[in-house]
Amino acid sequence: MKPTNELPSQLPVGLRAIALFEGVKGLLAFGAACGVLSLRHTDLHALADAFLLRHGIDPERHYTRLFIETVAQATHLHAGQIAAVGFAYALIRLVEGFGLWRGKHWAEWFAVISAGLYLPWELWHFARHPRPFNGGIILFNLALLYYLTRLLARQQAQRHHQTTTI
Question: For residue 7, how many C-alpha atoms fall within 13 Å in the half-sphere facing its CB?
Answer without folding.
Answer: 3
